[in-house]
Amino acid sequence: MTDTLTSNPAPAIEVAGLECGYGGKPVLKNISFTVGRGEIFFIIGGSGCGKSTLLRHMVGLHTPTAGTVKFLGQSFTLADTAARRGMLKTFGMLFQSGALWSSLTLRRNVGLPLEEYTTLSRREIDEIAGLKLGQVGLGGFEDYYPAEISGGMKKRAGLARALALDPAIVFFDEPSAGLDPVTSRKLDELIRQIRETFGTTIVVVSHELASIFDLADRVIMLDRAEQGIIAEGRPRDLLANSRDPRVSEFLRRGDKPL
What pLDDT digit, counting tens, does each position of 136-151 carry? Predict the structure, then answer.
């Protein structure tokens, strides 16, 4: 992480007028919001509303048709290849499946970002990978393969990889998908611990109410028909005060949090 990225007071993320879509078909229009440094920020909404689409356009997996994304004050959208590569080192991402390479051990999986973005030796990379696995509770599993561990452990191994470069920002795409409630709660606790320990900015795509109410400092809610943001704020404030029936219906599914 460069001094330029860490010495300015800009928000962790600034999204302005973003338009996202595939094959010329718009999915989201005029998306604008900011995420403060050290904030746990959720992107919420029902199935098909564009949560993962927004995330993928923000991190450069797809190119927006309009608008800009800034990380720590620098434009990611308008950056040239060299600048963008440097900025990629400032954030990590945990995909729904964990996205681990089945042919590599957990140690080698976690070491991949270090191999790509640093000139560290194999021994140094292995040492850091072991430390990162230890941080997520997988010490002793360094030489296991993904097929030899549970779904929850795969998510934690994916998180260790996302943390390999000590990023300022970590993105999570439906981290609780496929997990039982107990394992999901443990992952939520780990996410909170990462923020509290390292001051990491956390951005989570989720529809899970338990995680939303337990973790989120602030949320934006997307709507499929609106193709945009229909609510923004603290989830409990939105639950108590929103007059939009779409917001109330989403946040009141099942048992409400106390």
Answer: 999 999 999 999 999 8
Q: What is the pLDDT of residues 45-74, one digit of tens each?
A: 998 999 999 999 999 999 999 999 999 999
Cβ neighbours of residue 111 under 8 Å, at least 6 residues apart?
125, 126, 128, 129, 164
Provide the edge-to-edge strand list for the sheet that holds 169-173: 91-94, 169-173, 201-205, 40-44, 218-223, 228-233
Q: Please name every residue paired with 169 in a beta bridge, in sequence order, or none if there are none.
A: 91, 201
User: To 10 degrees, what angle do helices 106-117 and 122-135 make?
Assistant: 120
Going edge to edge, which strands form the sheet with 13-22?
25-35, 13-22, 66-71, 74-75
Q: Are 81 and 124 in contact (CB under 8 A)?
A: no
Q: Is 251 exposed, middle or buried (0-12, 13-18, 19+ CB in 10 A)?
A: buried
Amino acid at 194: I
For residue 209, what is the enclosing H or E element?
helix 209-215
The reported pTM is 0.90
**Is there a contact between 44 and 221 (Cβ–Cβ < 8 Å)?**
yes
Residue 48 burial (C-beta neighbours within 10 Å; 0-12, 13-18, 19+): exposed
Neighbours of 156 (CB within 10 A): 25
